Structure formats: C-alpha cells, structure tokens
Amino acid sequence: MIARATTFSSVLEKDLSLDHTHTRESIEIVYAKGRRYIPQALDNLNHFLRDHYSGLVGQMDPGLYDIMHALRSTLKADLPFHIISGYRSPKTNEHLRTTRGGGVARRSLHMDGKAVDLRMPGVPLKELRDAALELKRGGVGYYPGSNFIHVDTGRVRAWAG
C-alpha cells in the first residue's frame, strides 16, 4: 500500500454585510481570502463607505474590515452592520465639526479612511462596544445618545461621547 499525502486548500473567506443608514445602499461582499485582500472588493467597499455628503471616495484601511469581521465572529452575529459614517473629506469633517456643537475631531481618522461609525441591529450597543474593546485593535468610541460606536485602526484607546 502506498501512503499519499493529503493537502487541503481551505482558504478562509472573510466577508461583510453592510447597510448604509444615509445612502440606503447595502452590500454583501467577500473582501479577503486568507490573508489576501481582493482588490475589486476593496474598491467596492471604498465606494460604499464614501463621504455621503460630497460623494468623494476615500481609500479605506482594510484593517477596519478585519475589525468588523472579528466583531461579527465574536458576537456570533450574521446581521448586517448599520453604517453611519465611513470616509469623510476634510471639508465635510470641518463642516460637521463647526456645526454639530462638538463631537467631531479636528483631525478625525475618518479623513484618513481609518474609522467607521456603526451599530448592529439585535446587538445591544454596550455589548458591541465591549466586544470592540476586547479586540484591542484600535480606538473605540461609545455614543449611546446617538446609538453608534466608533471603531478605528489608530492606537488603542476608548472614550464616550
């Protein structure tokens, strides 16, 4: 009898399901296979997370998608994230900063494509925040009055707004 080596080519696909609260658009997408990001999927996500005020498309940090994917896995949730804000142009950020009575940072990571504001239906906001904090992958802001959390790929930190 001859022994044969068996290899498995199982590649973990990373996917996301997102609903944008302002544009009313939805997307379900596989954005990576294993450690390799899919360029066309990243382009589609950049467009989906564009500045919904100006329509400008930014270059989003794929690490954000990994954070969202990890959140879905940790929470064992398959409902889409509700996206409140992704990329913001500097002009939009300045407008929001000066007209919303605070709460928008002068050097927001949204302008660098490194932040997203979101919630997940069916998951209490505090539970979503706690799961994001446990990941220790970046900043986590908690905005219960506005019903969203902020996650970013900056340094690990937390705040409430």
> From the helix content, strand content and strand pairing, which structural class follows?
alpha+beta
What is the first-to-last residue Cα distance? Answer: 68 Å
CATH architecture designation = 2-Layer Sandwich
Percent of sequence in beta strands? 25-35%
List SSEs in N-to-C order. Answer: EEEHHEHEHEEE
Outline, from the CA principal axes? globular
Describe this structure in words.
Strands 3-2-1-4-5-7-6-8 form an 8-stranded mixed beta sheet. The chain has helices spanning 39-48, 62-75, 90-99, 125-135; strands at 13-20, 26-33, 36-37, 81-85, 115-119, 139-143, 148-152, 157-160. The longest helix has 14 residues, at 62-75. The protein has a single domain (13-160), classed as 2-Layer Sandwich (Muramoyl-pentapeptide Carboxypeptidase, domain 2), CATH 3.30.1380.10. The protein has 4 helices and 8 strands; from the N terminus they run βββααβαβαβββ. It is an alpha+beta fold. Its cofactor is Zn(2+). It comes from Yanghanlia caeni.
